[in-house]
Hints:
- By secondary structure, the chain is mainly beta.
- The longest helix has 26 residues, at 3-28.
Amino acid sequence: MSKASFQTRTIRRVLSTxxxxxxxxxxxxxxxxxxxxxxxxxxxxxxxxxxIIVTAxxxxxxxxxxxxxxxxxxxxDIERRGLQELDDVARFTPGFSFEDxxxxxxxxxxxxxxxxxxxxxxxxxxxxxxxxxxxxxWAVDVGTASLQRVEIVKGPxxxxxxxxxxxxxxNYVPRKASIEDGISGEIEGTxxxxxxYDASFFLNFSVNEWFAxxxxxxxxxxxGSWENSHPFADLxxxxxxxxxxxxxxxxxxxxxxxxxxxxxxxxxxxxxxYFDVQNEARASRYIADSVxxxxxxxxxxxxxxxxxxxxxxGATRFFSFSPLICGEFPEPAETAIVDPRSFAxxxxxxxxxxxxxxxxxxxxxxxxxxxxxxxxxxxxxSGEPDPINCGTLVGPAGGFAPLCNFQQTPVGDIDYDTHEAxxxxxxxxIRAAVGGFLSDGLDRNxxxxxxxxxxTDAGNVAPLIGTPVPNFSRDxxxxxxxxxxxxxxxxxxxxxxxxxxxSSDGRLTVGAEGRYSETEITATDNRRGVTLNETFKEFTPRxxxxxxxxxxxxxxxxxxxxxxxxxxNVTAGRVEDTVFDPEENWTYxxxxxxxxMNGDLTLxxxxxxxxxxxIQINAADEDPNDPNNPNVPxxxxxxxxxxxxxxxxAARYQATDNLSLDATFSHSEGTYGDGVFDxxxxxxxxxLTAPCDNVVCSTDGDISGNxxxxxxxTQASVGVQxxxxxxxxxxxxxxxxxxxxxxxxxDSANLAIIPSRFLLNGSAGVNFDDISVRLWVRNVLDKRYxxxxxxxxLPFGNTYGTFFGERxxxxxxxxxxx
Length: 818
């Protein structure tokens, strides 16, 4: 779908919202009485002290009263800690990490349960914006502009949220219209190093006591923190690209929302949020095996040429070199190299939501929510080990001219409608709810391998497009191989309910939740003219017991089942392998939440154990006519089990009127069970192309007992803040935040290691009545580090993709509230 079509669709959504606003205005001026919503009243109460209100259970609650492991960041947290993206949120959330692979395969990870397939369209964590499910990973990192709060809910949430809340959920809570007196809002601007410029505003307009209309706009541009050593880095290329530094962006977001309280017991709200994301390629380095291995220019060891091969272990491939990496990835050099034609994300996403809330009686509430999420995406990344000269992946072997290879995926669009109705009863002793959910969506995706000539002349640049048909001549002409052209229709029908009982003294609560879902998926492979259909049925319960030891201490225990959707292998050689089933887990958790010393000290802790089954793992697509053939492609099958257990701690302490401290810690142990095999390490002819040697890894791909990859076992953070007042209504603060995470394995064979890292942020600010100015520095020590990595292992060559964290950035932000 073209961007113009998306914009047309966007205009229709905005007009729909405007039409609803007009209806609301008419209702508002008709003389109906109103009262503030419970959520807003709770939020106002929270402003009186160190209370964080969350809505993880579909109602406003003090986070300390919720028997779930939740980390929440308020507007002030987002501002003072300098949280700009999910990677920042992960640094200060125990048990949560975020993998950004410079494109459409971002992967949130909760409690070490990483999605085993980096290219999976859906992750093990569900992400919601204002309660609307975001179905694809390329759209989950929406930034933090105009957010009221970010919540990370840990542990299976399938009973509450449904689809794919396998190990937890992310909730973005945006700023929306609220009924206040007159006009209020905020204007903010940022100027920083490396051409960082931001501008935003939020405006809330209450025409009377019944109605409010709000809107926001945000624009952020940045050149990136990594210098690009490509000789044509400053080339001005039409369309999405990476110009100048690496890792920059040019993003916009727009929102409009309306709220009307028709009567004291009935309210209607509607909102539309639009995101235009233009992200450059991330700083990265791809390592591929070749004759002699890939040499590390940063390591001058004692070899004939003064360099050490990075690929340093495994079976001898082609009788000459080792194809695998054992040990830590090399530290990034001072600069990185990225082909300026590559880019991470060119995406537009729109989210429309309308809701009706009615208080039927004093004890009975009804709500209905309709939502639509739609978007377009185009991603073009390069995995070239030599982005300047190219040829490592395509040519010059066999006499082909060297070409630069780009992977364009996902390229396509999504369009999902959802409906949810809920009836809730609460008389203080019994709380019960029943409801239904319906989702119907279409996802279209293309995957192309584009191969174009290297840039040698600024006046003659081959653009990031391919010829309509493959061109296998030995001339350096571009060619485009279409690897996938698919459509996926998904329909979900769910019924859910909950029942909680609270003792007469209010101290003991026992409850259960459950959701039954039927997910029908129809996948069409347009290249092969093949359509597959399957309905996956799941029941996901949750059982909870919480006990108020005293007014300041809550003990809780939960048992919950999580599920992640299955899918299809359209190319599978055997009929029985065309469908893979959902992943499942049972998680058992004990926790304590305490608010001590008159609320000055908050201590929360959880311990958990997860039994993970039917893991979707890469497997060899066995050739029915030649079962022993090792040179076959990979498919996805349910081939493994694992277990994860761990502990999470979080504390906040208001030491004095001026000094406050906060800290987090988490540690998890995740290992694969017996009889788990990863076919990537078994494919290939022994002694010629097979990667393993039965020394560093098993030739049959056995990974039993290995640690689950791509998740740091240990994380910790500490924050220190000093704030005070001067003059009349003036204040200041100084804050520093430090985070550390342990090293972890990049692959399931536990060979390549992503090193540990320590990062430091700082900020300081002053406010004069409604004007505030703050200075901020991210990555104060300018640490160069590998943030995440993946391995592509093929019989004809291995490639490791390593991605680098952001370098130091700094700026000044000023805002005015009115």
